[in-house]
Amino acid sequence: MKGVILAGGLGTRLYPMTKVVNKHLLPIYHLPLIYYPLRILVDAGIKDILIVTGGQHVEGFLCLLGSGREFGLDSLNYIYQEQEGGIAEALGLARNFVGEDRMCVVLGDNIIEKNIEWIKIQYEAQISGARVVLKEVTDPTRFGIAELECGKVKRIEEKPKEPKTNLAVIGIYFYDNQVWDIIDNLDRGPRGELEITDVNNEYIRRGGQLEYSILDGWWIDAGTIPSLYKASTIIEEYEKIKDRVS
């Protein structure tokens, strides 16, 4: 299984900091943000990884991460997204890297507490299709929200005004090679972008091929100034606890 980290975008919600540094290189307590999605994949046993990035200051990734040897990777690859076009468009740039393999896709500003190797194993047991990772949230109008029926995902609605559940689709996805055909046939949404929610809903339309797992532990989307601060605070406490235990 291949790993893909989507670390593009201009990071406008983090201005003015991101005028001089890519947001995925900003510090979360003692480590750069990009370390956390990398660790998600490595801890799940995925050792061939592609980082899709864009905007300014992308040379910082190569300076910081190099060949990925520090993480024990078999290979660490990079590709540049020339313009913003949505998460699904960014994922499409990984086609040559992933090929016919399956993949785990992680958004570059996602931080989680626990290992997802068990979710990877669940996905590997699927004959085909995709799997999304869900987490209960207190503010479901801010996220793509999964509506469930009889143990299956019935539909995902992006930022619903009246959410059917509080189960947010977080930025960790598992896909097979059907995803390339789905991306090729997507229509652009109101923002002019190819939306990842439309990719996931197409898997549902294809005979209910979208499964789900519910994440253990906490999850943070560190894409805003308040969440960046919150993430640093949580990681600081987490590291202190680890130090006391050890």
Description:
The chain is an alpha/beta fold and 246 residues long. The protein has a single domain, classed as Spore Coat Polysaccharide Biosynthesis Protein SpsA, Chain A. The protein is 29% helix and 28% strand. It contains 8 helices and 13 strands. The strands form 4 sheets. It has a 7-stranded mixed β-sheet. A two-stranded antiparallel ribbon has the order 2-3. It has a two-stranded antiparallel sheet with strand order 7-13. The chain starts with a strand and ends with a helix. The relative contact order is 0.17.
| Sheet of most strands | 7 strands, mixed
Distance between the termini: 33 Å
Indicate the low-confidence ranges by residue numbers: none
Order of helices and strands: EEEHEHEHHEEHEEEEHHEEH
What is the helix tally? Answer: 8
CATH topology: Spore Coat Polysaccharide Biosynthesis Protein SpsA, Chain A
Structural class: alpha/beta
| Total beta strands | 13
Total domain units: 1
Q: How much helicity do the residues have?
A: 25-40%
* CATH class identity: Alpha Beta
Under the CATH scheme, which architecture would be assigned?
Alpha-Beta Complex
Shape: globular
Strand order of the largest sheet: 5-4-1-6-11-8-12
Mean pLDDT figure: 91
Strand content: 25-35%
Spell out the CATH superfamily: Spore Coat Polysaccharide Biosynthesis Protein SpsA, Chain A
The Rg value, from CA coordinates, equals 17 Å
Essential attributes:
single chain; 246 residues; alpha/beta; Spore Coat Polysaccharide Biosynthesis Protein SpsA, Chain A; seven-stranded mixed β-sheet; two-stranded antiparallel sheet; 8 helices
